[in-house]
Automatic annotation (TrEMBL):
Entry-linked InterPro entries: Aldolase_TIM, PRAI_dom, RibuloseP-bd_barrel, TrpF_fam
Coiled coil residues, start to end: none
Protein name (Swiss-Prot/TrEMBL): N-(5'-phosphoribosyl)anthranilate isomerase
Domain of life: Bacteria
Pathway, per record: Amino-acid biosynthesis; L-tryptophan biosynthesis; L-tryptophan from chorismate: step 3/5
Keywords, comma-separated and alphabetical: Amino-acid biosynthesis, Aromatic amino acid biosynthesis, Isomerase, Tryptophan biosynthesis
A biological process term (GO) from this entry: L-tryptophan biosynthetic process
All copies of domain N-(5'phosphoribosyl) anthranilate isomerase (PRAI), residue ranges: 4-203
Organism: Mariniradius saccharolyticus AK6
Catalytic activity: N-(5-phospho-beta-D-ribosyl)anthranilate = 1-(2-carboxyphenylamino)-1-deoxy-D-ribulose 5-phosphate
Entry's EC annotation: 5.3.1.24
Length: 208
């Protein structure tokens, strides 16, 4: 099981996260309406942390994403909007980075929508449908994932909280393509700042 802690931006909080939890990835949100938006002014203080950095984008341009990859030293790009398979492919060729495509899950899931992306992206991420695109703090019906038909690995996201630890373990035991989890607002003291001891408690329990 792998861990991505999303919505980080405070350098002291990132330092604590990296030292205490050592997550597999840290997510930086480059979507201006988000309360977790990361300004370019923070690039110098963030880029040298020794943790894999995933940039989260919602319908951003190729130029904007390429600029952030360079400025922040991103290792992966998470496409959290309506980006096409062609766009994902061009981005992968241009940046050489790992590309993740997000699907927002509502009452039902149409797995056919994923097919055009499956030979392009490195990973899918399933988050709860919301008008704000992400960071809703709400879970979706995980039973839908039992029908996931592809070999491509995916991350589970959307409102994950400490009380879900056992259910997450059960789900992963049933679905080998589930490579990890993405946590965010349920571990915050305020938008963009995580409660590191809570993250540690959760992760210490889950990774065993
Ligand atoms: O977190 C945000 O503010 C956000 C806004 C717009 C697009 C994506 C966003 N977050 C990306 C993530 O990967 C979150 O971790 C994911 O949406 C789950 O968040 P939460 O429901 O708070 O656990």
């Amino acid at each position: 099981m792998r861990l991505k802690v999303c919505g980080m931006r405070d350098p002291d909080n990132i330092r604590d996260l990296v030292e205490v939890v050592q997550p597999d990835w840290m997510g930086l949100i480059f979507y201006p309406p988000s309360p977790r938006f990361v300004e370019n002014a923070l690039a110098e203080s963030i880029r040298n942390f020794r943790v894999n950095k995933v940039g989260v984008f919602v319908n951003a341009s190729m130029e904007e994403i390429s600029e952030k990859v360079g400025l922040f030293g991103l290792d992966a790009i998470q496409l959290h909007g309506d980006e096409s398979p062609e766009f994902a492919n061009m981005l992968k060729e241009k940046t050489g980075k790992s590309v993740w495509k997000v699907f927002l899950v509502g009452e039902e899931m149409d797995w056919e929508k994923l097919l055009p992306y499956q030979n392009i992206v490195d990973c899918f991420l399933f988050d709860t449908f919301s008008k704000s695109h992400g960071g809703s703090g709400k879970t979706f019906n995980w039973e839908l994932l039992l029908d996931y038909p592809l070999p491509t690995p995916f991350m589970l996201s959307g409102g994950l909280a400490i009380e879900h630890a056992d259910a997450i373990k059960d789900l992963q035991a049933k679905i080998p393509q589930m490579q990890g989890i993405d946590i965010n607002s349920k571990f915050e003291t305020k938008p963009g700042v995580k409660d590191i001891s809570l993250v540690r408690k959760f992760w210490d329990y889950l990774k065993t």
